[in-house]
Amino acid sequence: MSKKFIQFVDGPNLNMLGEREPEIYGSMTLDEVHKTVRDYIAQNYKEIDVNFFQSNSEGDIVDCIQKSKNTASGLIINGGGFSHTSVAILDALYTIEIPKIEIHLSNLFRREDFRHHSYISKGVHGVICGFGPNSYVLAVEGMVKLI
Which tens digit of pLDDT belongs to each residue from 66-85? Predict the structure, then answer.
């Protein structure tokens, strides 16, 4: 069996996890969240490999999504604030035909009204939100079923 590859894409301000609003996002850093995912995959899915990418730049995120078209079996994206504003990221998601899942640490529907709408949701197969860092692990479980 050949290895499957999951590309994670983390958007703006996620590099500030652990410092930024821990009452909403928790105390884990993004590196700690990624380590949790790596450890989970290593323990449960030997046939899965993973890569993490984070940027505060919309263009860099679009580039990463486009490159995933030829390298990844699936893509998991936490678009952060760009989820609520970026048609460019939505269009990039439309250009790749691999399975895609959107994730958020917080429950968007318990937050400010503007966070209740995500542009990028139309470009993915499913959305997971509100489970803190476990949203990432739940997305791996969902992705394994899709790929």
Answer: 999 999 999 999 999 999 88
* pLDDT score for 68: 97
Q: Which residue has the tokens 């290593």?
A: 42
4-146: CATH class? alpha beta
The residue with greater pLDDT, 1 or 91, is 91
Distance from C-alpha of 43 to C-alpha of 81, rounded to nearest angstrom: 32
Does 25 qualify as catalytic in the annotation? yes
* CB neighbour list of residue 103: distance below 8 Å, 6 or more residues apart: 76, 77, 78, 127, 128, 129, 135, 136, 138, 139
Residue 105's CB is within 10 A of a number of other CB atoms, namely 23
As a residue count, the chain comes to: 147
- Active-site annotation holds for 104: yes
Burial 13-28 (b: 16+ CB within 10 A, else e): bbbebeeeeeeebbeb
Catalytic, out of 34, 104, 119, 136 = 104
